[in-house]
Write a structure and sequence with these properties.
This protein is about 35% helix and about 30% strand. It is an alpha/beta fold and about 325 residues long. It has 2 domains: about 210 residues, P-loop containing nucleotide triphosphate hydrolases (Rossmann fold, 3-Layer(aba) Sandwich); about 80 residues, VC0802-like (2-Layer Sandwich).
Length: about 325
Amino acid sequence: MIVAEGLSKSYSGRRAIDGVSFTIAEGEIVGLLGLNGAGKSTILKILGCFLLPSSGRATVGGYSVDTNPQAIRRLIGYLPDVPPLYDEMTVDSYLTYVAKLKNVDHKSVASSVGIVKDKANLNEVGLARISELSHGFRQRVGIAQALVHNPKVIILDEPINGLDPVQIVEMRDLILSLRGQHTVVLSSHILSEITRTCDRVLVVDHGRLVAEGSEASLQSKMFESMRLSLDLTTVPNGFAERLKAINGVSAVNYVPGQGGERFYLDTTGDVRAQVAKVAVDAGAGLLGLSRGEAGLEGLFMKLIKPVEERAHG
């Protein structure tokens, strides 16, 4: 449904995205994950035909963003990071207006508006002015306007930004309800929401695609390199050397504690069973053994550049 090949975009000599390539199948929910300023919104704006790429190509539904933007706009529903709302209008009048703008058949406008109000839980505020709505309801109206013409592709830029925990759950449920019926591309810098919502994740950093895959496939990469935290009651003589002798342990760091001792181990594989056996056999009093970095969050932090690198590069 969506194909990007070598997409690049520059602003006044600064490259916002650089050689990004990916494919999204029909019916998938795919998340763009990255820190603020990583290039996520630029990618979405190109797919939504709000920007042209500086180089590379992108197609949506077989249409090129360069040569057939109008055909693509008919296929997609788009929610930018700031919803395009008219504060003086009521929710009902606004959604009706958008439906007409998007060429919904005049006989179907009322039913189309009713359907998206149900999906977005907007029935109780249909007669309210948009200016009177909370941030959460404004986001729901933004989603509803993106859905009102029943598009094949839905593009959502930071749809949970600024929402409270209850609203985040509601927005997550709404996005999940679109699976299979629509192809959904959404961006976020919140890893937990991306992994709960999306079939696949595209990790973007400094305008480049640095990783992609399902949660399971990205999770498996964590076992290729991880940091283990080992807590003990005591440290027998020569214990650090025993740890270093384990195949797959690349570094051992000892942190003395009060009422407990801790080692950090850098490894090139999952060697937790071997580490636990060494601790037990040595009589070290094993208190705990865990991965020092939590799942996908650890992978994400390894893939992106540290803050100090951003400041100088």
